[in-house]
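Can anyone check this?
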Amino acid sequence: MNRSPKALFSLVLGVAALLLCAFVVRGRLGNHTLSLDEELDSAKGLGLPVSAAELESKLSVPSNQNAAPGYLKIIELIRQDADLRHGLVAIQDGSFEDASPKSIEAAVAVLPIVTPALKATAEAAALPHCAFPQPWADAHKLGFPEVSRLKKLAQALAFDAWQKSERGDWRGALAEIASAEKVGYHIGEEPTMIAFAARNFCETNTQRMFARVIQRNRNDGAFLIAAQETNAHFSPLSDPRRPLLGETVMGISAIDKAQSIQEFEGGNTPPADKGVEDSVITSDERQLMKAKLLHACRETYKALPSDPERWEQIKQVGGDMENKVQADKSPENMPALVRFPHVSVLGEGLARMEMRRRQTDTELRLLQERLKTGKFPAALPSAWMTASDPFSRKPFGYRVEGDGFTLYSVGADGVDNGGVPRTTTRRKDYDEIVKIS
């Protein structure tokens, strides 16, 4: 078919425009040309949800196994009862590691007020799983207020366990320690980074109160056996990939609902290479934004090990991807810069949880050994597998001190500081210790 010179000229211009667009897209994506459709297909192949419906399907829990309805009733009670709210805050203040005697006394005084709520919490915690009904379709708006409420309830359970132990009821204390740990586990089933951090906090607080209960009952053989059983039956550590499930959906939701790039910057100034008139996100830009964020989440999800004990690899994978995301300063990567989670903290957090559990088990073994032989061993027996520090891959630091001992982990920095506790220094060179005196 013959074409007029004018038609040929228009065709050439059209092809040139398409090539220019391809060049611009490729430039904005750095060395990678990403396709949102391909990213979505790859995510689906990995089992990484990218929509509210897919995420809800993954989080589905049978109603007879779901603790969320029970927790929601307690949370509503807290909202309505000012005395209960104030009581939980008082217990929170009394639970701090450096809480004053006055704060502890005030916390003990309000225990009768919170006891009914704690009993109901323990009943809900007995169920195997927890899935709160979240409006994931508007995931970018979610604040997860249930997390802070459950944290306070877990703190109160652990504090009450300590007080029951002080009154001689170590069986009741161990039951509440188990419930406090389970509440933390239930919080961590929410697939977000904030939920992971809250679970780690609950585990730290619960183990700290557990240590006080052990100190109080260190000479009771029956208690030591029961305490070891309690520690051994704590919930499994989280799959480090789980927080990415919710974070991915929240990030995509935020991109879908955003009207301008400034919404990801937290300000009103357009990026340097965009004027006010073109700061509104175009359809093509929105696709690129989702492709970049999804690429980062998908590649991380694929590279992360599911085994929580491989914490060093988890930390390395997270750190590598965080660096890659941060290196791309293009406008289309702004959502990823803001919404991509700091996955590297997962490794250290999981290592801390495992470390505390091993410390507790080793502490209880040492106390049982003294009851059996009349003295603590001079060194940790090599046959005790739980005496291995996850942070050093070596035995815990250990020394006998009079009628007691100090048992310590070198901590996340991997430096052995000789058992210097966090509470005696404001410097960074401390170890994670357990002490019996």
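Reply from J.R.: I decoded it. DSSP finds 17 helices and five strands in the chain.
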